Amino acid sequence: MKLNEALGKRKFVVTSEVQTPLGDDSPEQLVDRLRRIRGRVDGVSVSDVDLEGVVGDSIHTCELLQRNRFNAIYQTTTRDKNRIQLQKDLALAHQSGIENLLVFTEDYRITGDSIQEQMFFHVDAGKLSSVLQHIREGRAIDGEKLPEPFDFTLGSGIESLWGKKVPKQGMEGMETLKLMGAGYFLTTPIFDLEQFDKFMRQIKTLDVPVIAEVLLLRNAAMARFINRHFKPGLVPEWVIQKLDNAPDKHKASIELFGDLARGLKEICSGLHIITLGGEDKLQPYLDAANLR
Predict the structure, then answer these.
(1) How far apart are CA 178 and CA 169, in angstroms?
(2) 217 backbone φψ class: left, alpha, beta (φ>0; ψ -120 to 50)
């Protein structure tokens, strides 16, 4: 079933994320590691990677996933791309048979309500909106006619840590993304189900499916690394302590995921698993949460 069909039928959607292979790792090896979960996830997103000038071919990886019966999701950001580059990438994705697009309209997600963050969002959202409008009408941004109009099932990242206090600017940003054609929102990582439920009640009027991001944390060291290098306090201390004190770290990791996944089934439209390099270890986690 295609991702847009699953969303349209309001089934609980399960997606995951992988990074474009770099160095000695090949896209074929990545696809091979995912074979065990084929048919159990509704989509696999492939993120752009630019590490010290080495750029991964995420569209080629998406193409391989498609050929191996996965619903590939081309994931990109608008931060470092002008409209010409963005249009070029989307046209290449379309030519490669990719139907799903996940876009972040700034560094990470819509965050806060400072003037600087508002400016980043509005500039990037406007850039994306312009390109999408043109390709849907079969026109390039310079006015030239494209071979055909095309579109994607569009997902967009949002901030979800506000709880019941979603600021006005945050709501307006999500409304902008909806008007742009977002078929679903992808949240920041979720740990607190009660807080997330309050957030979901706030944005219910938008009537856009929400997929919750879940980190697959295999040990406390991984959680501390995320807090130290990505976002301080992102992983709550109680999660770190559970992983740290458990006699069986693997079992504790699976229990954390299973409890969170079962709770999310009652709150939102699906979950998106960030494997942190553990895509070949997903099967027992899906089993624990009874996810197909």
Answers:
(1) 14
(2) beta
Q: Is residue 140 a contact partner of residue 94, using CB atoms and an 8 Å limit?
A: no
* 3-state SS, residue 279: helix
Burial state string for 67-79 with b = 16 or more CB within 10 A and e = fewer than 16? eeebbbbbbbbbe
Name the pTM for this structure. 0.90
Q: What is the pLDDT of residues 67-111, one digit of tens each?
A: 999 999 999 888 778 889 999 999 999 999 999 999 987 544 444
Report the percent of the chain where pLDDT is more than 90: 58
Nearby residues of 44 by Cβ (< 8 Å), 6 or more positions away: 15, 16, 17, 18, 34, 65, 70, 71, 72, 73
SS3 track for 168-204? HHHHHHHHHHHHHCEEEEEEEECCCHHHHHHHHHHCH
